[in-house]
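Our collaborator T.R. sent over the components below with a one-line note: 'Predict the complex.' Nothing else. No constraints on interfaces, no templates requested, no preferences about which chain binds where. So this is a plain run: every listed entity goes in together, and whatever single assembly comes back becomes the starting point for the next discussion.
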Amino acid sequence: MTSTATAIQRSDALLARRTPVAKIVFLALFTTSALFTRDVAALGFALVVTFLAAPLFGITPWGLLRRGWPALLGAATVVLSLALFAADRSGTVLVEFGPIVITSTVLGNALSLALRLLAIALPSILVFSTTDPTDLADSLIQHARVSPRFAIGALAAFRLVGLLGDEWRMIAMARRARGIDAGHNPVRWLRLFAGTAFGLLVGAIRRGTRLAVAMDARGFDSGLPRTVARPMPWRPADSLLVLTGALLAALIQLIAHR
Amino acid sequence: MITLEGYGWRHAGRRAWAVRGLDLRIERGERVLLLGPSGAGKSTLLHALAGLLPEDSGEAEGVRKVDAGHVGIVFQDPQSQLVMSRAGDEVAFGLENLGWSLDQVWPRVDEVLRQVGFGYERDRATDALSGGEQQRLVLAGALAPRPELLLLDEPTANLDPAGAALVRRALRDAVDADTTVVLIEHRIAEVLDLVTRVVVLEPGGGVRDDVPPHLLTGPLGAELAAAGVWVPGHPAPARHAANPPGDVLLSTRDLRVRHLSYPDVTIRAGEALAVTGPNGSGKSTLALALGGLLKPAAGEVRSPDGSPHRWRAHALAARIGSVFQNPEQQFVAATVRDELALGGTPTSRVDELLTRLRLDHLAGANPFTLSGGEARRLSVATALAARPRLLILDEPTFGQDRRTWIELVDLLAALRDDGHGVVTVTHDPDVVTALADRVLDLGRSS
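Returned assembly:
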């Protein structure tokens, strides 16, 4: 949780500084199109576009790979497990090694699944790692007519989430100090885990309640019309980004159904 | 500005009234210090004045009239008051809520940040600030909409002395002369020159005294000190060791934890060691490493029985008791009695601890419903349950009134004189004066 929160960088790169709502609409169009595609060439195209676009978000292709390592790991796991366990083993046999039979169908399916995973995960990393949460809340209020009660409330909660990791470590240490540990017993480990989680929950609710009172005291959600201290104009470039998203989505479908 | 006539409030589900029978008038521009022992209803009164007691959360009686355009309030803990992740946005938040127009918001933000002496850019991340800086930012947020009434609920109780001084200076410099201020504070010596009037609440209900600040030095001062208020000129009694220290319980050599290096420490039986130093000097981290809860990055923590961080939890609890800054993090059971009985403490030992720490009348209560002083006593009792010889406490006197403070120091002194080793991490200078036989100052030595 903390790692994603601290990984956000405010960048002046061409696409990074686009309005958050425009970036999210772009992302939604692009990844939805990828989600409904099984064609390897189309998904490959989507990935090439993603890596070419990375510098426009202020992230080098190498940096994108580094940030996206869990997705890469996931993709590798998909290929490996499908190669070993896939039920449909039709098509040309490529490799035969004892019980392991890798056919063209198996490889095609595995590759398509892995590429789909990457074509959804990597663009999301591009967009969200260059979007400041405060800017996102502002943009949601101004461009998507999301209620400030929800957007600012979620933003404040997000700030508290960053504190939960430290809180968890403190509670775990406090329990050890009380003489409670699990040793090698899985049942006790599970009970300890549940107990720690409950302690975390109690603490989070208390802190959340106090924050809500403090926000009330400063006139939040009091029924007065709220002004916006950080106006965020919607520029032609934002419309262009959304349009590009639609275009790329269509292109992916065209390649898939060529 | 404020008129209370026979005012009372009872929280839903409670038998006792939090405040009752209160008659009080406060005029525009007055600076009122609100005093009273724990449980006298000071915080409840402040919430009532701020309009933060929803009608469905309890029962009110009498008259409460607050004639103020906008009311600002500052609580103890800055972490649970900050809303935004950037300093400027934090101050602007309240102005947005009140519908200030854009061309007024940012000039006012800059002005109020300057007034409270906030030394950073608007873009500064609020998480990167120290506690004292965060609390100054919270104060700036409360002052930005130019409140006619400013309410302060122990705004410096969670801060180290340097941070508390920053906040007091900001209060002195940034509050307009015609702003009415109502302040709750246990440590009154430092704030007496900020106020024009002192109101003392009676725990049973009503106002006990209503005097100008200079009268606190007379017999009233002695009476208040006895009732649990920190009054200047009434220092806490000292409790130093009567006997020389005994055998070594724990020692460190070339210790490094996370990225902090520490001087070598030796802790002996029958001795109270105070660890001091400014925020960020690694006091709490040292306490965790000494308590066998954090693994050293280099060097070692040694006891005659080995390295504490390698022990199983039950062995650790029988040798070293750790008391955390926030007692609630250590509570795991549904009642005070179960909390002490955890891990197979014999019933006789549980009863002994309940009596000794005056918790016997609370044996059936839920630990999370205890008052600050009671929760602190329970956390000390739980650390003592398995009879460890060494006790390590992190800021045990945080936010305690004078009476619970003296009880706690007496208890720690008695434990030390029984042959326990006592390590106290603290930035409370009175603990150092009253209890410590030896001081390790991390600010100076590293």
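Summary for T.R.: The first helix of chain A runs from residue 2 to 7.
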